[in-house]
Amino acid sequence: MIALFLIPVYIVINIYILHRLKNFLIKCQETFSRKWLQVIIYIIYGIFAVSPIVGFLMPYGTETKRMATRVGNYWFALLIYTLIIVAIGHFLSILLRRVFKITPHNFFQIRKNSIISGILTLAIIGGVSAYGLYNARDIKVTDYNITVNKQVENVKSMKVVLLADLHMGYSIGVDQIEKMVKLVNEQKPDLVCIAGDIYDNDYNSLEDPDKLANLLSQMKSTYGTYACWGNHDVNQKILAGFTFSTGKTLEHDKRMDSFFKKAKINLLTDEVKLIDNKFYVAGRLDDEKPATGEVKKSADELLKGLDKSKPIFTIYHEPNELDELSKAGTDVLLCGHTHDGQIFPGNIFIKLFWENACGYLKKGNMHNIVTSGVGIYGPYIRVGTHAEICPITVNFK
Question: Which positions fall inside the Calcineurin-like phosphoesterase domain (predicted)?
């Protein structure tokens, strides 16, 4: 249903931007008013504009789908800030003319102002997009230090590295994962936790599954790597980061099972593991798309019967049910999903929808940490947020 709304909106946005671009080019050089030249501009623009749709419609595993989806993700990133900046410029122009009555006095002044404002607009769009592209690839290290009021025999503290939202697929490949693994190992962790969205809805989109699995297997920690599923860890068509409900039960690609074995990742699907008789690690199914076709257990059902004198780490993709998990006995809740909004102004609005959209929150005796993630979804850009890994020093007393 949402697709029926988004497609006409997308068409209108592209028509608006193309119209503004055409007017700017004509004011810069009268040659662009020629019909044949405008047709060429329309065709070039149209190729980029339809690339997300072509990628969406192409069969899985084809090179055309891979290329079109990747181009579409870059295009969508550029389109977002082109729309924002062009619309702001257009609004300011109307404001100056209609409200403040500031207008140029002759044709040449109008043309000069249009060219200057157009060049300035293009420079801002280019600068923001280039920064956002670089920033999406630049993985930061965000440290946390917390204290759990429980004792672990012969262990005063441990280092847990939280990862989430790898989104391996059309946009995130070997280079980004290689950087991530290097940063993880530099932390010398005792435990690595991956809070879902490990791949991006399509196993065939993985750049090199064997190489990616081998890289992930190189993460070194005392107790190993544990993970849970996220809402993108299912077989589902995706359009510029958006998925569309089909009413069917969605499950993960079974090839991911062998992928996890090669990657030495212990997947927890509504399960709890006692690690070295010292602490528990629980992994929850996702609310929206459990990836197994099963109904997710309640917090009480998941943690029932555990020795609550031992620390309990819960990995859960979406930062939901904070009260329930705190009351059920979780000491440290590790989440992802939100991307911290990923792009401005999303990083402002995201806080309206989540009790803890990103960062740290204490809920009762439970520590909740939400990471903005390693990868991206949809548009390949990060502005106002950053990709990150989160080393957490957990002190016991």
Answer: 158-340
Quote the CA–CA distance of 181 and 202 in Å, as a whole number.
22
Alpha carbon 330 to its chain's center: 26
Two structure tokens written together for 52? 């997300």
> Are the beta carbons of 96 and 102 closer than 8 angstroms?
yes
- Quickly tell me which residue has 């039960």 as its tokens: 249
**pLDDT digits 0-9 by tens, 241-274:** 777 666 677 788 899 999 999 999 999 999 999 9
CB 161 within 8 A of CB 368: no
Q: Do 151 and 98 share a structural domain?
A: no
Instruction: Give the phi and the psi of residue 238 in degrees, each rounded to 5.
Output: -135, 135
Report residue 356: phi and psi, to 5°.
-130, 95
Domain boundary among 95, 112, 136: 136
User: Euclidean distance between the first and final Cα of the chain, in Å?
Assistant: 52
Token pair 């055309």 is found at 64
Confidence band of 4 (pLDDT split at 50, 70, 90): low
**Is residue 119 within 8 Å of 127, Cβ to Cβ?**
no
For 213, counting Cβ atoms within 10 Å of its Cβ (0-12 exposed, 13-18 middle, 19+ buried), the class is buried
Cα 177 to Cα 208: distance, rounded to the nearest angstrom? 11
Whole-model pTM: value is: 0.90
144-148 vs 265-267, strand pairing mode: unpaired
Give me the pLDDT at residue 294, please.
77
H helix runs in 237-387, sequence order: 255-263, 299-303, 322-328, 346-349
Helix and strand element counts for the chain (H, E): 10, 15
Domain that holds residue 350: 139-396
- pLDDT tens for residues 42-68? 999 999 999 998 998 888 878 888 889
**Domain stops at, among 136, 164, 192:** 136
> Looking at the structure, do residues 242 and 369 belong to the same domain, yes or no?
yes
Same domain, 120 and 216: no
